[in-house]
Amino acid sequence: VHQSKMDFFCKLGYSKQDICKVLENLGEEALEDDVLKELIRMGSKPQALEDQAQPSQLKLVARGLCSTSPGLKWPGEDESDSSDSLRPIVIDGSNVAMSHGNKEVFSCWGIQLAVDWFRERGHTYIKVFVPLWRKEPPRQDSPIADQHILEELEKQSILVYTPSRKVKGKRVVCYDDRYIVKVAYEKDGVIVSNDHYRDLQNENPEWKWFIEQRLLMYSFVSNRFMPPDDPLGRHGPTLSNFLSKKPVLPEKKWQPCPYGKKCTYGNKCKFYHPERQHQAQLSVADELRAKTKVPLSQGKEEERCQCSP
Description:
The chain is of the alpha/beta class.
C-alpha cells in the first residue's frame, strides 16, 4: 500500500521526500484525498508547476544556426524588406541634367528631382552616373547649375563618377553609357534615360533586349519629374508593375453584354450577364432542345410499358 501510494503521487509530480513526510504523519492507511490535501498544505508543488514558475534560461535556436545573434531579423521585420520587391534604379545623370536644363545647362537640380521621386516610391538602390569632368569649375561652353548637389549625392553613395583624365592637355573620357547599361543589366534594374543607346544595342544582343524592355523615359513638367504611366506602350505593363520585380496582375473586369436579355448566345457569349448568375447559361436553341427531349423520352417509355406483356 505504501509503495502504490508513493508511485501514484510520484506520477503527479510530487517529490518522494514530501510524500514520505505526509505518510509518516497521517499513516499509511490515510486516504489519497487526505494525503493530497496535506501535500498542498505543506506547500509542495508538482515538478511541472515548478518548472513553469522558474524562468527558462534556454532559448530556442532556429535550425541551422549555431548561436542567437542580437541583430537577427526575420522576414517582414526588416524595414528594407518592402523594397526587395522594387527594381534597382540606374539614372543617366548627364541625360537627366541636360533634359532639365533644356539642353543648354547641366542642371543638377533635375538629378535631385529624379532621385527624390524614386526615393518616395521606396527604392533603396539608386545609382546616378556622371562623368568625372563635371566636377571641374563650369565654363562658358559647358555651364553647370547647382553643382553642390553632386557633392551631396556623392556623400550619400548615390552618385558615381565615371573616370576621365587629361593626356597632353586633351581630356580622355570613358564611355559613361556603357557603365549605365552594364550595371543595370547586372542588377536586373531599370535605366532612367531618354537615350536609346543604339550603339550598345548593336554591340551586344543581350543588352539590346534589356534596353528595349527596361528603359524608362521621362519628362519634366514645371520642375516635376514625370515618367509615363505606360512605359512600354498602351498594351504594356503599368508603371508600378514595370518598376516592381513581382508585377500584380489586374483583376479581370467583365464588360456587360450590349444585347442584354435579348442575347441568344447563352454560355458562348463572351460578355457579362447579371441576370444569368444563378442560371445555366445555355443558348436558346440548346434550351429548346433540352425541353423537347424530356417529353419525347417519357412518351417512348410509356410505349415500351404498353408493349411489354
